[in-house]
Amino acid sequence: AHETSHKSILLKHPSGAEAEVRLFGATVTSWKVDNTERLFVSKDAILDGSKAIRGGIPVVFPIFGTDEKIKLPQHGFARNSDWEYVGLLTDNDEVSVRFSLKDNQLKQSQRSAWPHSFRLNYTVALTEKTLRTTLVVKNEDEDTFEFKTLLHTYFQISDISKVAVSGLSNLTYIDKVQNAAKVVEENQKVTIAGEVDRVYANVPEEVTIEEDGQAKYRIVKTGMKDTVVWNPWIDKAKGMGDFGDEEYHNMVCVEVGSVADWVKLGGGQTWTGGQVITAL
Ligand SMILES: O=P(O)(O)OC[C@H]1O[C@@H](O)[C@H](O)[C@@H](O)[C@@H]1O
């Protein structure tokens, strides 16, 4: 049921659900349920490996944004590296594929910017209505290292003006469009009518995206603490070479991760985090 090429892996579930994962970044670039695409990938996305893919689910690791002390590109090296395809796993109703990335697959400059021995295992699993993406980080050093990580999911929506995100009320967020001000979310449902770039910290496990009053996606996270909500809106959209000027209407990023604080991982230890997204 799997068609492999050197560039992407296609997952097919007996129900008809499908997903595509590129080896570049282990980026999930398509998830179809009921023959309908659920992830947003820009029409201008660059797919030749020269830039992180604008859409789907890029994996952010080991930094979020940029970092003064760690000289890595924005959001780290995972989304810009060629991962190895480990193989296929199946059980009764779930079809899954696994990818891995080790420090020895990195460019020398990246290894010296983040000088740790590690292994990432990333599993993408499909059932009839769900997509599960799980990241395992193994510290293969003797010493503790620290990282941030995030699954930068771009959801496909019809009209941003009709979208609401629930599950975030009363939480404190860092507002990246207001100089990282800390703000308490007072709305029961978060709506988007301008540039939004927020890190909600310590988020309960379940968040729902609705459109036109109807729940569309449920996102359940495990092992990860925070949730980022991002829409570039008009000016940022125009400024991005790999994003159409009008595409902000059709996407919202709701990204599970551990980014507000560093995750400390002892030598020889493993950490697991991930999400299950359900198409409702
Ligand atoms: O353009 P990039 O590097 O893919 O980042 C996209 C966005 O990713 C979000 O997660 C960040 O919070 C935003 O600040 C950022 O603009």
How would you portray this structure in words?
There is one protein chain. By secondary structure, the chain is mainly β. It has one domain (3-279): Beta-galactosidase, Chain A, domain 5 (Distorted Sandwich). It has helices at residues 108-113, 233-239, and strands at 3-4, 8-12, 18-22, 28-33, 36-37, 59-60, 84-90, 95-102, 118-126, 130-139, 145-151, 154-156, 163-166, 172-175, 181-184, 189-191, 196-200, 206-211, 214-222, 226-231, 251-265, 270-279. β2 and β3 (18-22) form a beta hairpin. The protein is globular, with a radius of gyration of 18 Å. Bound molecules: 6-O-phosphono-beta-D-glucopyranose. 6-O-phosphono-beta-D-glucopyranose is lined by residues 52, 74-75, 152, 176, 197, 228, 230, 255.
Short structural description:
It catalyses: alpha-D-glucose 6-phosphate = beta-D-glucose 6-phosphate. The protein is mainly beta and 280 residues long.
